[in-house]
Amino acid sequence: MTSICELSATTLARAIAKGELSSRDAVEAHLARIADRDTQLAAFVTVDAESARRAAEICDGASAPVGPLHGVPVAIKDLTDTAGLATTYGSVLFRDHVPREDDLVVARLRRAGAIILGKTNTPEFGFGAVCTNRLRGSTRNPFDPALTSGGSSGGSAVAVAAGMVPLAHGTDFGGSVRTPASFCDVASIRPTPGRIPSPRRPLGWDMLATHGFLARGVDDLELALSVCGGGDANDPLSIGIAGEDPPLTGRPRIAVTPDFGVAPVSREVRARFTAACDMLAGVAAVVPSSPDCSGAIETFRTLRATHIANSYGELLRTRRAELTPTVIWNIEAGAKLSAEDYLNAERRRTSIYRSFRELFTCTDFLVAPAASVFPWPNEISDVAAIDGVGLETPIDYLAVTFIVSLVGFPVLTLPARRGKNELPFGIQIIAPPACESRLFAFGRALDNELGFSHRRPPL
Length: 459
Description:
By secondary structure, the protein is α/β, with parallel strands linked by helices. It contains 14 helices and 15 strands.
């Protein structure tokens, strides 16, 4: 049982396809791991054991694999609709909500043969630095259960790190797959917006939020993206996304920045990032450099606030007493912003995007920390200060990740190599839009040559 739970999704899929392992064995092993560890860690909101067992029996009875993930257990973040399986969005308002249809990313996973074990924990509507809600409580970090797993895909990160599933879905607005990946020592991919379509997204041209994945290795992320990517006529961002993604030739050129020139980042993180960059210099040409990101923090605050107020303003007016203080703050932040504020922010975002593009004319990758701080106690709801310097808003600690969300470049997060007693820490590896294959190839090289890979937690 234990050995099955340490296998990657890629290895499991191969073993099941060859008949060396049954899907039922894989499902039972992971359900047993959930039963053993999730009482303490709270990675899941809902576990659908019986449906998973039925799906495994169907897989094992098939004459041939139905797809690349045939029989492989996966988990879905509870912000994303799953047909016939409760989807709460982390809110008591939706505790009994059971969608009739799968979100497209879920449908594509099922078509690829994946078996959904359950829904992973998230803060209410994905808003919150700590992965907690009134339905399940706090998701705890497997490296130290007193600490946060990060928001808002913390449940997925912990499920993967603790071996409850080999692969989990997440979503990322300002860093929601990358921060938990950094805190829990796993890998993640936030692809180019539109690479995984969202055909039901109300704002079709909104590129701030994307689907993504978390896993213990790069191969699994690439496999998941391969089965979930592809255009959809109802998502305008997904049309024509395929671009040039030539393979790397020669020694990679890497620009590195601890903070994009504007993000608040702790001294401890800066020290670990410097050590990671020293290691990167052994495999690439490393040059300290950054795009011009002046005004990026204010720009993201404005865009995020207006989007949230537009999406959830009616809930605030009609169900305020049932919402968490974090959600209320997020909605109210956009209430007084004007159309001029929004368009000025879009104007500044365009300038930042072009600065990123200019940097990539002379570099292959841009590398930055995947979190500005290390995990903190679950009882502290927000990061109010870094190194004793107060932050203006509760989201500013995410600037090192949300700056990348602002411009929509794909990001691979990898665990940086660490000492035995050090907390997990990850790096963001950023590439030009539509260059995910290049990211995965470089990520494999860093894993093989530098040991930038997951380590099993002590639990």
